[in-house]
Write a structure and sequence with these properties.
This protein is an alpha/beta fold. The protein contains nine helices and eight strands. The protein folds into two domains: 211 residues, Phosphoenolpyruvate-binding domains (TIM Barrel); 28 residues, no CATH class. The protein binds 3-methyl-2-oxobutanoic acid (KIV).
Length: 248
């Protein structure tokens, strides 16, 4: 799809959202952002393999046509052997199509081993939530960071990753990387120059309140949820519901 049409990637943590996201996306990502979005964790470091597998099993039920990618959580790919063991477990138990790992040179041996074992890998560079210290800050501002990000993206491509998420990468650098690579870049806070875009679905539909710069709220779904719940509670209180029609 590179240079032909923009790639749409949406996150999902459960079947019902996955079913709707699948109608609009090319890639459904079971992101470890579920740690902060669903469990209020202040870091994705707390997300476990069991969390990811359980949510992914539910997502699998809703994804029919999109490529399904599952994040490998923190600490599950520290060594080559643990990366392979855990990636195999994720693929086997969730029937997903690929896994995503955060990082470049530091985890290159793990990525190479997964690809050698025919496990498709999506890369993730720029801001890396699993190891990020402090606030959401853009990446690629300094010459050193810029050089490292270009190096890392080429390294990941050479290893055989099929795509790279670029998170919070400065516009000019995201453009440069996207133009240099043959594989597609998927941006999040990294400008329109990327080959595709990803956002956390709960953020873009207004289910999760966040003030991150790159998040645009495309709909306020909470309003609709509240309307439905208000109608239900008021009809129960006024004894309009359940009428005969809804009773056995
Ligand atoms: O965890 C996640 O949801 C992600 C995307 C936002 C890129 O990694």
């Amino acid at each position: 799809m590179k240079k032909k049409s923009k790639i749409i990637c949406l996150t999902s943590y459960s079947k019902n959202i996955a079913e709707e996201a699948d109608k609009h996306a090319d890639i459904i990502l079971v992101g470890d952002s579920l740690g902060s979005v669903l469990y209020n964790y202040n870091t994705t470091k707390k997300v476990t393999l069991t969390n990811m597998i359980d949510h992914s099993k539910s997502v699998r039920l809703g994804v029919k046509k999109s490529l399904m990618v599952v994040d490998m959580p923190y600490n599950t790919y520290r060594s080559k052997s643990s990366a392979l063991k855990n990636a195999k477990k994720i693929i086997k138990e969730t029937k997903c199509d690929a896994v995503k790992l955060e990082g470049g040179k530091k985890i290159i041996r793990q990525i190479k081993l997964l690809i050698k074992n025919k496990i498709p890998v999506m890369g993730h560079l720029g801001l890396l939530p699993q190891t990020n210290k402090g606030k959401f800050k853009s990446k690629g501002g300094s010459t050193k960071e810029k050089k490292q990000l270009i190096k890392d993206s080429l390294l990941l491509q050479d290893c055989g990753v099929f795509s790279i998420v670029l998170e919070c990468v400065k516009t000019s650098l995201a453009k440069q990387i996207t133009e240099k690579l043959k594989i597609p870049t998927i941006g999040i806070g990294s400008s329109a120059y990327c080959d595709g875009q990803v956002l956390v679905t709960d953020d873009l539909i207004g289910l999760n309140n966040t003030k991150i710069k790159f998040v645009k709220k495309f709909i306020n779904i909470k309003k609709h949820i509240n309307l439905g719940l208000k109608k239900f509670s008021s009809e129960v209180r006024s004894q309009k519901y359940p009428s005969k029609k809804y009773s056995y």
